[in-house]
């Protein structure tokens, strides 16, 4: 997928006449490529726009601006950013989403065979015996017994429900899967099992993942590359190993410092789980670099001039001063 200058803005309406008085710039100009077969994680604090961006990629939302060129199995690119529902139909089975909440995302009044079978029926599998055999096969793939297909969601644990959610997404053999905080509602041990399952399925089905998460430990484990979002934009895009070994943007460094981990190579505060200061308001974005009110390195230039993404080392970074900064001492509370 080739994403160029994607914006998703929502109007703010007030009064009985519903006059537009401003706009929320939830996603504010993202450009990146998603490579076939990789896991690209999108990280950032709540409110940074990562879920909205994921919804734009799967076209649950139509971007206000920009292009999303999807390259199908034949290698041909199509800009799906502004297609109508009928034109989108051929791409709906290729690009699927796994949702965060395994309790809310499954209809409690439908049996598993109907939940997974619905995707198949929607994409043209009309023979009920074929639906049943494909649902059974999919359940086996995600480690559930096929005879469970006649049960309702309440009969399953959180981890099992998320497996059903994964089976539903993969039943129609997609190529790209956007997983939005898909393990964050699960216990840590179940998270690990679910991540391992997703990796196995990625290999088996040659899947590309866009993995949206605020949990950097999970991201480090599963990703090939990471895009760090702040205030609707990507501020750092890098290979996972390079990003965790040497973050190039002060926001990335502060996010990493907020993860408690016993690693003597990295300076950590150990206890903090939240960064100091408020996340930038997408309805009232700070001038210049949106991170400047929280950045310990901010200069006058940062307050007036918006940094563009540019190569710094092996990463792409949106920071005026990245090369000159010593980020080793950055803590979650330094901002
Ligand atoms: Fe900090 Fe300035 Fe870089 Fe923004 S551009 S992250 S304010 S140093």
From TrEMBL:
Keyword ATP-binding applies: yes
Name of the protein in its database record: ABC transporter ATP-binding protein
The ABC transporter domain, residue ranges: 1-256
SUPFAM superfamilies per record: P-loop containing nucleoside triphosphate hydrolases (SSF52540)
Alphabetical UniProt keywords: ATP-binding, Nucleotide-binding, Transport
Entry membrane topology: Peripheral membrane protein
Organism, scientific name: Devosia honganensis
Pfam families: ABC_tran, oligo_HPY
Family to which this protein belongs: Belongs to the ABC transporter superfamily.
GO molecular function (one): ATP binding
Source taxon at top rank: Bacteria
NCBIfam families xrefs: oligo_HPY (TIGR01727)
InterPro entries, A to Z: AAA+_ATPase (IPR003593), ABC_transp_ATP-bind (IPR050319), ABC_transporter-like_ATP-bd (IPR003439), ABC_transporter-like_CS (IPR017871), Oligopep_ABC_C (IPR013563), P-loop_NTPase (IPR027417)
Subcellular location: Cell inner membrane
Main location: membrane
